[in-house]
Write a structure and sequence with these properties.
With about 475 residues, the protein is an all-alpha fold. It has helices at about 1-5, 15-30, 30-40, 55-75, 90-100, 105-125, 125-135, 135-160, 185-205, 210-225, 265-270, 275-300, 315-330, 345-350, 355-365, 370-375, 380-395, 405-420, 425-440, 450-465, 465-470, and strands at about 85, 160-165, 175, 335-340. The termini are far apart.
Length: about 475
């Protein structure tokens, strides 16, 4: 096992890999709850043009199944500790697409399969690797730092520490601290305590600090849930944002996997036309393509697995396997399965190999049978780990030459655009376009890889997709 996964070679141990895999699972297990909320539906919600909808309990089952399979496959083949699950940006895009474009859920998942096949072809041909290697070292550092900011922001939003200010408030401030700049619920206070607790454990270099923090914070959440009477929320009287830390009434049961294979590969092209279906595939492809590439860049650098130029050894194989995630996710009706930025929490625990991924994957497969049990961990207990890991990843800015503005501005925009637009791909695109423009303006256009010019142009078209759609009706 040590030779196969290169555990000692990468300075890790089996215990660290197991801890890292467990921590990664707990920081991303929320997707099994959240994915059914986004793409699942009922007779009066989230149904398609044929009034068909994806039953939430079945979506939860296939989400755990697809995530488990891809985590294990990636761990065995690519041997990196990068866990997989249904991509949040992509499942949201699918929900909007089904609602606005008039295609069915079966057809939407068929388009995901097509997008996945294209991803695999691009990776197998070496194009994705060539683009990955063409990214300047400074931008790779900016991508890693931006992901750190992004996951910290995700943690704060999921825990309710940062809230969107309703438009009715008629204020120019889009987000606020808690409610009226105050912590008003116990769940948010638990999150704040979790951040400080995990910060102390990591600062004191306690082994398994993040995992210990999640366990303690979950126990505290269960105590508060049992005796508290506070706050208010549409989801729960005590204000939990997603999972409610109650002891489950039932523990296990057989998962319903009837959604597996229930897809229509080419139906969307006849229903809404070739152009519209192609635009949807292009949007899915570009989002998945650069989300995964950016995430792997950041995770690889944080784990110390990248070379001096920020490139990951064997990245071509890793990207090829990642592309199959879309095929697997689409075929299972779980949305595209892609690499998850929350893997950084496992890396912070010491995970450096694919063994951690296998641990995470096995836990996802087990979760199919014990859905009520893993729901005990609220997002307020797991989100602090994302904030702590974000603080670790922001350190990548030390490798950016801030004295050169043609580097500083693209790097800065890459970093801030990810949390501000809630998208890794958007941050990368804005950074690439700015970098190309400034390097040309400085007369350094020869130093820019030709592939970056092409990619920057593709992003320009991507950001202008709505006017282009309107132009062609």
């Amino acid at each position: 096992m040590d030779r196969f996964f290169k555990i000692s070679e990468r300075g890790s141990t089996i215990a660290r890999e197991v801890r890292g895999g467990v921590v990664t699972f707990f920081t991303m297990a929320y997707i099994v709850v959240l994915n059914p909320i986004i793409i699942g539906g009922s007779a009066d919600r989230n149904y398609d043009t044929t009034h068909h909808f994806l039953p939430p309990n079945q979506v939860a089952a296939v989400t755990a199944l697809a995530a488990g399979i891809m985590c294990i496959v990636f761990g065995v083949i690519a041997k990196y500790p990068f866990a997989f699950a249904a991509g949040l940006g992509i499942n949201s895009l699918l929900a909007v697409t089904v609602a606005q474009q008039g295609i069915t859920w079966r057809e939407a998942m068929g388009l995901v399969v097509i997008e996945g096949v294209i991803m695999v072809v691009l990776a197998a041909s070496g194009l994705r690797t060539a683009i990955f290697n063409a990214i300047p070292t400074e931008l790779k550092s900016a991508i890693a730092a931006g992901i750190g900011c992004f996951i910290a922001f995700i943690g704060m939003v999921d825990a309710g520490l940062v809230k969107r200010v309703p438009d009715a408030a008629k204020t120019t401030v889009p987000v606020g601290f808690g409610v009226n700049n105050s912590i008003t619920t116990w769940p948010v206070l638990i999150f704040a305590v979790g951040v400080l607790l995990m910060g102390v454990l990591v600062a004191r270099q306690v082994r398994g600090g993040l995992l210990i923090g999640i366990i303690i914070t979950t126990a505290l959440s269960m105590i508060v849930q049992a005796i508290g009477d506070f706050g208010s929320s549409a989801k729960d009287a005590r204000g939990w944002s997603l999972n409610v830390p109650d002891m489950p009434k039932s523990v296990g049961g057989l998962p319903n996997l009837s959604l597996v294979g229930d897809v229509d590969i080419f139906g969307a092209f006849s229903r809404v036309g070739v152009l519209t279906a192609t635009v949807v595939v292009f949007a899915l492809l570009l989002s998945n393509f650069f989300d995964a590439m950016g995430t792997m860049t950041g995770l690889g650098r944080e784990a110390g697995l990248a070379d001096k130029d920020g490139n990951l050894p064997g990245i071509g194989k890793a990207l090829t396997v990642e592309g199959t995630g879309a095929v697997v996710g689409g075929a299972a009706s779980a949305s595209s399965i892609t690499v998850f930025v929350e893997s950084a929490s496992g890396i912070a625990e010491g995970a450096r190999t694919g063994l951690a991924n296998i641990v995470t994957g096995v836990l996802f497969l087990v979760a199919m049978f014990f859905t009520p049990l893993y729901q005990v961990v609220p997002s307020e207990a797991a989100a602090p780990a994302l904030v702590v890991v974000g603080a670790m990843m922001i350190g990548q800015v030390r490798d950016i030459d801030w004295s050169k503005f043609e580097i500083a501005l693209p790097a800065f925009l890459t970093i801030i655009a990810m949390p501000f637009t809630y998208s890794i791909a958007n941050g990368i695109g804005i950074g690439f376009i700015t970098y190309v423009v400034l390097m040309v303006a400085k007369g350094k256009w020869r130093t820019v890889s030709p592939l970056l010019y092409v990619v920057a142009l593709v992003f320009v078209l991507y950001f202008a997709k709505q006017p282009i759609e309107n132009l062609f009706n």
